[in-house]
Design a protein that fits this description.
Two copies of one chain form a homodimer.
Chain A lengths: L5 H14 L7 H8 L3 H17 L4 E5 L5 E5 L4 H15 L5 E2 L3 E2 L2 H4 L2 H15 L6 E5 L4 H11 L3 E4 L10 E7 L6 E7 L8 E9 L3 H12 L3 E11 L11 E10 L4 E6 L8
Parallel strand pairs in A: 5-6, 5-9, 9-10, 10-11
Antiparallel strand pairs in A: 1-2, 3-4, 7-8, 11-12
Helix pairs in contact in A: 1-3, 2-3, 6-7
Chain lengths: ~280, ~280
């Protein structure tokens, strides 16, 4: 077998690993691919790991033992995350985004693949240890961030629908009360989409009253699945208590002042670096 | 400035470039980042390019001139693409996926981030030259693939909704006839989401009669935007003519035989390697 040089090995290795985040590759895999000794592959891994850390571009984690190997994790730098979310907040604070009724137009930001990929990395890093089997969201606004989170976690995405379709097959449907508007809502999941005992990470775009989150948790109960985490892109800082209190969010929307044309939003306290 | 070694440069460069597909970075950017001469950076680029090509992991394109630079493109190998789609088809051919009415359960596959990321790369590679300003889809099933296509193209995703929400602001709504069921459908886009003269790439999950695709094209006319491509994950091979004929698809669904419990689906002829 032709010998492969270190430059070549580290480049191909990084691309293969980062194409499949949170998935373990054995040293044998790379050893065979490059025709190199396992000790050489170990050195390659150390080099890639150090460079990713130095430039805050992610992390390589080595798992030892029989099922051992190496995997790419999207653990980005805390200061970098804070700076990124501050930029997103400042974009959202544009007065032109204020809609009648005090709503905020953020659809473009929540659909931006660059923004959602980065948000997905941050959310995934929070929940690597929760060992979710899938990410659960409800259509439509939260889908892009939930998909990118699932991508960084290396797990499937499952989308609850407001109205079941023929292509869903048999479904489980629940009714729930919206926490903020107190209207009855409905959502459905295909029966075959979740298996008993699986672990769900709930990811949605916006937490106001918490009704939808409770609905998603109730839906998981119907499947005897376990919710191992609940996360939102934004939460509204309202005076009223929310229906859930065990969750995380990337940003806190303090206020949309329609008359004064101001929006107050900042990275969540979890980033611990408020100015 | 501390000198940075080649290993380190090629690793960081690849990660930075592949984090932002189809986006040009100047040689000066890397020259400053690594404290290296532009000629050295050029050599680094050549090394990364050769390795990506050798292992079919993507491509680096160099743009010369004043606005010059280097960018990562997800051009994957033709034989690899064909093999990937063949695997997807064989998964879809599982008789357990057949639903009453001859529908096929593929939701799990269309929501799988690994599968959709790869599909997005293939679709993006088809349309790099079309210079789309955004990818357009309609909720819900096509969103994951459309988002991943937008990610590989480095452009935003825009999602038409069946029902407009308060958070959409002013919207443009059109009515259209579903090509297959001849029922009236409706979809909306926020007025501020598209600007006159922009270039749209339509990406959706399934082409049957073509009514939705015509609807999306009509919607773009309302914005005086130009449709530069139309692509689907799957098209149904029906005897009836479709309402559109200028499109591409990844796979062709020939038949779902409910009684015989067989599904016939294969990669589209565009991959040119049918067995």
């Amino acid at each position: 077998m032709e010998k492969v040089k270190r430059n070549e090995r580290v480049i191909a290795m990084l691309k293969i690993l980062s194409n499949a985040p949170n998935k373990s590759f054995t040293l044998n895999y790379f050893s065979d691919l490059f025709g190199a000794a396992k000790s050489t592959i170990s050195e390659d891994i150390d080099i890639v790991r150090e460079v990713l850390e130095k430039y805050a571009l992610g992390a390589l984690e080595t798992v030892t033992g029989a099922a051992g190997g190496v995997m790419y994790l999207a653990r980005t730098d805390a200061a970098d995350n804070y700076a990124f979310l501050t930029r997103v907040c400042s974009k959202m604070q544009d007065a032109a985004r204020i809609l009648p009724g005090g709503f905020l137009y953020v659809t473009d930001i929540l659909n931006d693949p660059t923004v959602t990929a980065r948000m997905g990395e941050i959310l995934a890093a929070w929940y690597y240890e929760a060992r979710a089997d899938f990410v659960l969201t409800v259509e439509t606004m939260g889908i892009p961030v939930a998909l990118m989170t699932a991508r960084s976690l290396g797990v499937p995405l499952i989308i609850a629908r407001r109205d079941a379709r023929m292509t869903d097959g048999s479904v489980v449907t629940i009714n729930y009360l919206s926490g903020s508007s107190h209207t009855m809502q409905r959502m459905s999941l295909p029966k075959r989409s979740v298996r008993e005992g699986q672990r769900a990470l709930i990811v949605d775009d916006f937490l106001k009253g918490g009704g939808t989150a409770v609905g998603l948790r109730d839906l998981m109960k119907e499947f005897n699945a376990q919710v191992v985490g609940t996360a939102f892109v934004m939460e509204a800082a309202t005076s009223k208590a929310k229906l859930i209190d065990d969750y995380r969010s990337l940003m806190v929307l303090e206020d949309v002042n329609e008359a004064g044309k101001t929006v107050s939003i900042s990275p969540s306290k979890l980033f611990g670096k408020r100015a």
